Amino acid sequence: MNITFDRYHDYAELTEILKTVEATYPDLCRLESIGKSYEGRDIWMLEVTNRKTGEGKDKPAVYADANTHAGEVTGCEVILYTIKMLVEGYGNDPQITHILDTRTFYFIPRITVDGSDYYLHTPHALRSSMRPWPDEVDEKKGLVPEDVDGDGKILTMRVPDPNGAWKVSDKDPRLMVRRRPDETGGTYYSVYTEGRLVDSDVVVVKQAPSRYGLDFNRNYPTNWALPVRQRGSGDYPFSEPEMKAVGDFYISHPNIVTSMAYHTSGGFILRPLCTRRESEMPQEDREIYRAVGERAEEITGYPCRPVFEWFTLNQDKPEVGSDLEWVYETLGILAFETELWDMAGRAGIPKRPLHAYRGLSEKEREEDALKLLKWNDEVMGGKLFHPWRPFDHPDFGLVEIGGWEPKFGRQNPPLELLEDELKKNAPFNLTRALITPLLVVESFRAKAVGDGFYKLEAVIKNEGYLPTHGTFQALKMNAAKPVRVRLELSGGAELVSGRDEFDAGHLGGRAGGGDHKKKFSWVVRSAPGGRAAVTAWCPRAGKARRELELG
Q: Which of 187, 213, 220, 342 could cross-link with 326 by S-S, CB 3.0 to 4.6 Å?
């Protein structure tokens, strides 16, 4: 399949790729729109499975989405890379062939179909939706981001200011560092995003709030809070059409066992919990997350860490309303988020919990910044940092504009490093598929007991790592339906003892959760030539069936 990863694909290109994949691999791929965006674009979902071995809904499913945030476009490319890996590997790679014969993938490559095109085709950036929110934003005054020098980028401005808090580092003239508390007599600056003042009479320059203040990853129902508590949360849970489409898709696909949301940046794989310590998670789920997380680290090189302990700036007031909270805490799905692209890690800067950055000294901050510049010079030929250059600004007078490449440097990998990022992250989707529960009928036998009577015995087994309920949070929330068993008789056979259909509870997996197989028996009466079939199914573990002839 001719998908190249030497560019970030916009909506039109993404749509063309997905339609081509469906047309090229009709037995493996099915494309559908799960809803419309604020501006009326289709939100695409591609199902990938071998439908000759069963419909997608009858197999345990692996879910992945990307571009919850408009500028985090690397995630869409990881999903496209994964799709290419799957369809080209089917029939050539035994593991991929087995996975697509027995499991289903649901891919939503881009949720912010409006915002990402705005990001890719203008100098501007935004969080999620193009819907102006909140309503009163237009009345605010301040510095509005704008490409004032016309170079196609919104960079950073350093403005000479005797009261400024910044100065040029004596270790590298590109680097701005904090002015010492007792420092006087030097050249100082105020540092702003490149832009224009909405009100030229302002006394103190402040960043104007964005017209596009919605954050899709604060619009999920679990722990949702009003905007006075949680910035960007929206008018109510799933208030945005894109997010309602995602929520409806989850609810209508109870076969989803594990989910992934791709974000940027930082080089982490995140796991729940988000608002409480990991110790409050069911012990069995902590062990599952740690075991799967270790495998994720081996594959991607990124550490797998709980959000609350590692990615919460203020643990007294954690961010709320994210996909990890709803998908794991309410739906009981084994949920992950990956923060793709680790520029700091490539520069040799150690990973720290987010809240630890508050405690860094100015010397430590300068050392980290120098490491980034050194990596940029030695590895990237200096291309990711734009040298400061003078510009006669209509509001500030003579300023200098420069700084880090914001979109394809800081937030996303530069194009020459994009495919490397995709290669190391896509294979974890195979692991997520292989850990799902999987029902099989291990044996189904009939023993004649005389006078046309037979004792039927079936052993139903879960071959997967996870139990048939997926997580233990799912049991707590009653979010996963149990295994259902049905006996079907034909050719004159009739049931004498036992039930023809019943709930059989859940089966454990290699991760625990009880016995991984159970035996069931019936007594039937049949003349020679009668037939019996046993079917076992469970939304998160798939469907299995075996038949036999009596006599």
A: 220
pLDDT at 250 over 70: yes
Residue type, 192: Y
Q: What percent of the chain has pLDDT over 70?
A: 99
- The shares of helix, strand and coil residues in the chain, as percent rounded to the nearest 5, are 30, 30, 45
Rounded distance between C-alpha atoms, residue 223 and residue 106, angstroms: 26
- CATH placement of domain 11-120+213-341+413-434: 3.40.630.10
The residues facing 106 across adjacent strands are 47, 63
> H helices of 145-282, where?
241-251
- How far apart are alpha carbons 265 and 74 in whole angstroms? 9
Identify the band that residue 202 occupies on the pLDDT scale cut at 50, 70 and 90. Answer: confident
For the segment 491-499, the average pLDDT, to the nearest whole number, is 96
User: How many helices and strands in the chain, by DSSP H and E?
Assistant: 13, 24
Instruction: Using the structure block, give the residue that is written with the tokens 């995630």.
Output: 75
Q: Which tokens hold the place of 237? A: 């849970």
Please tell me the distance from the alpha carbon of residue 291 to that of residue 512, in angstroms, as a whole number.
12
Q: 245 in the Ramachandran plot: left (φ > 0), alpha (ψ -120 to 50) or beta?
A: alpha
How far apart (Å, rounded) are the C-alpha atoms in residues 333 and 57?
16
Output the six-digit token pair for 111. 């949720």
* HEC readout, 230-268: CCCCCCCCCCCHHHHHHHHHHHCCCCEEEEEEEEECCCE
pLDDT band at 139 (very low <50, low <70, confident <90, very high): low
Provide CATH code, domain 439-549: 2.60.40.10
Residue 272: CB partners within 8 Å, gap ≥ 6?
281, 289, 306, 307, 324, 325, 328, 329, 335
Contact present, 57 and 100 (Cβ < 8 Å) = no
> What is the arithmetic mean of pLDDT over 405-411?
96
> What are the pLDDT digits (tens) for 47-82?
999 999 999 999 999 999 999 999 999 999 999 999
Whether residue 197 is preceded by a cis peptide bond, meaning omega within 30 degrees of 0, is no
Task: Let me know: does 333 contact 327? Beta carbons within 8 Å.
Answer: yes
- What does DSSP say about strands 494-497 and 517-525: parallel, antiparallel, or unpaired? antiparallel
Q: Cα–Cα distance between 269 and 64 in angstroms, integer? A: 14
What percent of the chain has pLDDT above 90?
93
User: Where, residue-wise, is CATH 3.40.630.10 in the chain?
Assistant: 11-120+213-341+413-434
Nearest Cα neighbor of 68 from 215, 226, 248 is 215
Q: Which two tokens stand for residue 390?
A: 């003078």
User: What stretch(es) of the chain map to CATH 2.60.40.10?
Assistant: 439-549
Q: Dihedrals φ, ψ of 66, to 5°?
A: -150, 170
Local structure of 220: helix, strand or coil: coil
CB 137 within 8 A of CB 332: no
Q: What is the pTM of this model?
A: 0.96
